Amino acid sequence: MEKRRENDIILVGVKRGTSALRLVKYNKKTGALFYNNLEDDDTCVEYAGLNINNSNEFYAVTYSDNARRASSELQVSGKEDHYLIPDYTILKYGKDISQPVKMATVKNRIVRSVSGNGHFLLTKEVDNLELDTYNLYVQDLNNKEKTQLVIENMKKYKDLQIDSKGRKIYFIGILDHSEERAVFCYDIKLKTLEKVFSPDKGIGFINNFTLICE
Q1: Residues of 81-101 as b/e, b for ≥16 C-beta within 10 angstroms?
Q2: Cα(131)–Cα(126) distance, rounded to whole angstroms?
Q3: What distance in Å separates the CA atoms of residue 39 and residue 63, rounded to the nearest whole number?
């Protein structure tokens, strides 16, 4: 994934000879690669998302690969009848990617994506792998209060991003009884949904997007 500051691009990748998905810093001037936390080949990065209010900060979702593998082995062996989801941790990174700050721990749910603005976190979480059900949550980073969002008549959504004030979220979605992808804006307080953009028929479809500013 892309990101950020003057001469550096932050990626999520795997170093040859290791197995963990980790943060990697690439210097555009020198071509040097810095692999974060190489001594830890257990912690994997599931997703990383930029702080819309501060381009020098981003959030990453991590989990233990050992715990994931152990749970899969228990399920395959028949000792467990369902997959035991490992804990997921949301970390905040600044200019020094070797010094993250822990923001939240999520238990019994897979965190598929995170978006933040310094005051709120927006997460997309899975609580049932068999049913592939997704839930959206907004967490206030000041009081740690976490609220589930329910967007009516929306069967799929991706690239979820919270705005700079924590009042709205933007995403690519597909409405019930439709196959058209469009960019939507959901007002958290008013609980209203607005279509922001959709391509003209026959031109193509939206694959992904990024909210840069409002």
Answers
A1: eebebbebbbbbbeeebeebe
A2: 9
A3: 16
**HSE on the CB side for 191, CA within 13 Å?**
6
**Site of tokens 């709120």:** 120
As a whole number of angstroms, the distance between CA 83 and CA 75 comes to 6
Return d(Cα 176, Cα 166) in angstroms, integer.
Answer: 26
**Tell me: the pLDDT tens digits for 73-83?**
877 777 776 77
Q: Which string of DSSP letters, residue by residue, matches the chain?
A: ----STTEEEEEE--TT----EEEEEETTT--EEETTTT-SSEEEEEEEEETTEEEEEEEEEEEHHHHHHHHHHHHHTS-SS--PPPEEEEEE-S-TTS-EEEEEE-SSEEEEEEE-SSEEEEEEEEETTTTEEEEEEEETTT--EEEE--TTEEEEEEEEE-TTSSEEEEEEEETT---EEEEEEETTTTEEEEEE-PPTTT-----------
Is pTM beyond 0.85 here?
Answer: yes
Task: For the beta carbon of residue 179, count every other beta carbon within 10 angstroms.
Answer: 9
Neighbour tally for 5: CB within 10 Å = 12
- The CA distance from 23 to 44, in Å, is 9
The whole-angstrom distance between residue 159's C-alpha and the CA centroid of its chain comes to 8
**pLDDT tens digit string along 12-37?**
999 999 999 999 999 999 999 999 99
Q: Report cis status (omega within 30 of 0) of the bond before 4.
A: yes
Please give the C-alpha separations between residue 152 and each of 45, 75, 177, in angstroms, as whole numbers. Answer: 31, 34, 12
